[in-house]
Amino acid sequence: MCGRFALYSPYPSLAASLRLPLEATEADLVPRYNVAPGTWISAVRRLDDEGPLVLDAVWWGYYPHWAGEDAPEPINARVEKVATSRYFRGAFAHHRCLVPANGWFEWTPVDGKKQPHFLTRDDGQPLWLAGIWSERPDGKPGCAILTEPARGVAKQIHDRMPLALDAESLAPWLDPHLTDRETMRQTVRHLDPRQITHWPVSTRVNASTHDDDSLIAPLPSL
């Protein structure tokens, strides 16, 4: 799953990594080292099919405006079901987005406790996580981050991971005219898992009120 991540790259670095024309409504990004669900996060999306790509804020919690009062508010959507689930398929076809992140946190059991790890790219470049969004009942956008079975070294930590896309897949993922599931499957690729690395970090990350760069610092030893 993906339940906590960090984003500290400045806007120019994100724009350069995306390599697509981008308008920003929040170019002065504040570094965040412990982004939790139920908060505003940055996402790249189109507000309508013919509009430009924008980097703006969306709520991390997917709750479409048409859903019932007791409907769930997931923060993740599984790639295995996102295209066919009634709850997600409309957003998957028409409202896809990218969530920038420098890495995400996951926990693994160690001696009866849970040890957090920070997973990130080995070259320090931002990750682009596949997401979907929908207008919430309050008219604000809400999103879920897609997850897939863990690959590479990420399997050492958890059985699932966020779907991070490779550079060539960013434009197709954001293309509003690409709606066919099979075409998308053949076009969109995840980041090479060999580019992912990880290390154990302080349990201070367990509390979402903690938010500083020490949270991503490697522990000297377990």
Automatic annotation (TrEMBL):
Keywords, sorted A to Z: Covalent protein-DNA linkage, DNA damage, DNA-binding, Hydrolase, Lyase, Protease
Enzymatic class: hydrolase
Biological process, per Gene Ontology: protein-DNA covalent cross-linking repair; proteolysis
InterPro entries: SRAP, SRAP-like
The enzyme's E.C. designation: 3.4.-.-
Family note: Belongs to the SOS response-associated peptidase family.
PANTHER family linked: ABASIC SITE PROCESSING PROTEIN HMCES, DC12-RELATED
Full protein name: Abasic site processing protein
Species of provenance: Pistricoccus aurantiacus
